[in-house]
């Protein structure tokens, strides 16, 4: 057994995962992003509780941010107060077990490739639609992490120069147009414009415009609200355009799209596929990648991180290799 | 010895290349794009002439367009009248030698990685700036060609939705902003606007606006014309932005930039590097790829194709592997 831990902006989820990718037990705690020591303490607590009932060989940790190629150090994490944090060393001392750090999107992609929707796919691009866009690639059964371990930041490809401001310091990044945050922002703008079509959305938040999030809109869309469905269609159009851009560059056999926004299901997938087909360069003269929703849901990152901790070997050159 | 053949939109270049990447002899002929049989005949003629003086083991052919993963069939070529053309089979019969087909940008990237600027680089992205943008990746000593063999079309990533029309059927593709064609178009627009700053450029073409090309502007810039230098700076800004996008996605250790537009040298490289640094996501928290001009010049594609014909093994999964 291995433990997979998924550290997000608001919570830490930990699970015992067997070698078939099945989650046998799971625990959650809120994160204390401002204090790395507190996050470490939370991890120790979770491993200790889960380890009481299962024999645990190793621990895999997936977190938003950039890990160095050896899987030992957090170079940078946008939501957590980690800068050049030697997290693995600290944790191996505290846990007395091998620990592997990985980017959360890499963990999710690995989970989907090993146990989920993309089993057997030789060229996988995985997109996680949450507050932003997480990205990862599995090529020939290897996580492709780039020369310095920071590949896969598809969400920060500029697709609209001079467009919406992004936290990364640029303007017009893809994730400002195709993410849960983008969906919430567009819905709030619609509501602030006093548009009558935003009625249903406003009712859902008792008129509190600031409480409108992507999740609220997604839920309204599932209940049939026309404006919410349109807002998700707009996100799908940007998503499809960005996937076509990735297909031009990477030519994968499959895109797997996961993350919270996928709760919208076909309401998101259909416009995404339309926009992808319309924008794919060379359409008609080439095969096109499939676009599929993730199979493992929110557990993908945890499952992937656990599996990676069991078997990951890091090549000098930059690939995380099984 | 192997022969490398570079088939472009206007000419076929063939060279005898030794296993150190040295071109021992070279010949050129105009292409007859409208007739695949005529191009085959030209190739046979070139190989026969070069083969008279050197022992030739194999022939590698680089051409604009998409080859299937086995290196046997041209799926699509924008400048040549080939559609699903079994070029290798035809040529092996005619030449009595093993033949390997490869995309011209892949050939150039392989040449630069094996014998040129990028020797030893584990994550190379190669950009060829000609009429459009050619792209290719060498990862861990393998050409990465994607699932269907059509990866690397970076020039057709949309970076300006609704922008300039592209021959590929989309609008706003990167190559409409950072290529020789883009440079020519911008200069012609400046001249048509009767701008006094376009005087030098107009003088170079005797007032014939339609004769203004990227090459004309590049030459004027090298002679010190301020407007031409500005036009190249604009191209560099778009080039740097696009390279930053690629760095976000692929995180290479090095970009090698080749092709005709590189005649501009530092006039292009300096603004490119400025824009890259300004647009790189996560700047300050990550190492940045080097941006270098190609070393092998116009011969890179020929040298790479020759070398690939000697030793290429194609994996089922999609990588061209040594």
Strand and helix map with partners:
The structure is a homodimer of 322-residue chains.
Chain A: E1 2-7, E2 11-17, E3 23-30, H1 36-51, E4 58-63, E5 66-67, E6 74-76, E7 83-85, H2 87-95, E8 99-103, H3 104-114, E9 123-129, E10 133-139, E11 142-144, H4 180-192, H5 199-204, H6 214-222, H7 226-250, E12 254-258, H8 266-279, E13 290-293, H9 300-311, E14 313-314, E15 319-321
Parallel strand pairs in A: 1-4, 4-8, 9-12, 12-13
Antiparallel strand pairs in A: 1-2, 2-3, 5-6, 6-7, 9-10, 10-11, 11-15, 14-15
Helix pairs in contact in A: 1-2, 3-9, 4-6, 4-7, 6-7, 7-8
Structure characterization notes:
2 copies of one chain form a homodimer. Chain A has a 7-stranded mixed β-sheet with strand order 13-12-9-10-11-15-14, with helices on one face. Chain A has a 5-stranded mixed β-sheet with strand order 3-2-1-4-8. Chain A has a 3-stranded antiparallel β-sheet with strand order 5-6-7, with no helix packed on it. Chain A has 9 helices and 15 strands. The longest helix of chain A has 25 residues. Chain A folds into 2 domains: 132 residues, Nucleotidyltransferase, domain 5, CATH 3.30.420.40; 175 residues, ATPase, nucleotide binding domain (Nucleotidyltransferase, domain 5, 2-Layer Sandwich). The first copy, chain A, has 322 residues and is of the alpha/beta class. Chain A is globular, with a radius of gyration of 20 Å. The C terminus of chain A is likely disordered. Chains A, B: This is Glucokinase. Chains A, B: One of its GO terms (cellular component) is cytoplasm.
């Amino acid at each position: 057994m291995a433990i997979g831990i998924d550290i997000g902006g608001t919570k830490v989820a930990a699970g015992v995962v067997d070698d078939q990718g099945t989650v046998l037990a799971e625990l959650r705690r809120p994160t204390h992003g401002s204090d790395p020591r507190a996050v470490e303490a939370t991890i120790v607590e979770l491993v200790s509780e889960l380890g009481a009932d299962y024999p645990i060989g190793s621990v895999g940790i997936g977190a938003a941010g950039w890990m160095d190629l050896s899987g030992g150090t957090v170079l940078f994490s946008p939501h957590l107060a980690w800068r050049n944090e030697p997290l693995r060393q600290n944790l191996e001392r505290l846990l007395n077990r091998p620990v592997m750090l990985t980017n959360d999107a890499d963990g999710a992609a690995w989970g989907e490739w090993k146990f989920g929707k993309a089993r057997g796919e030789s060229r996988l691009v995985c997109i996680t639609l949450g507050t932003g866009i997480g990205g990862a690639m599995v090529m020939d059964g290897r996580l492709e992490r780039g020369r310095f371990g920071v590949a896969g930041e598809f969400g920060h490809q500029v697709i609209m120069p001079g467009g919406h401001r992004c936290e990364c310091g640029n303007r017009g990044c893809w994730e400002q147009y195709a993410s849960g945050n983008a969906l919430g922002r567009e819905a709030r703008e619609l509501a602030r414009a006093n548009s009558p079509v935003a009625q249903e959305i406003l009712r859902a938040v008792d008129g509190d415009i600031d409480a409108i999030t992507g999740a609220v809109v997604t839920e309204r869309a599932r209940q049939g609200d026309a404006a919410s469905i349109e807002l998700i269609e707009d996100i799908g159009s940007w998503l499809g355009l960005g996937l076509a851009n990735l297909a031009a560059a990477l030519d994968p056999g499959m895109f797997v799209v996961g993350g919270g926004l996928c709760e919208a299901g076909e309401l998101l997938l259909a416009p995404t596929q339309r926009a992808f087909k319309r924008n794919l360069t060379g359409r008609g003269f080439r095969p096109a990648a499939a676009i599929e929703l993730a199979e493992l849901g929110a557990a993908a990152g945890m499952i992937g991180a656990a599996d990676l901790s069991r078997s990951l070997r890091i090549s000098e050159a930059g690939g995380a290799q099984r």
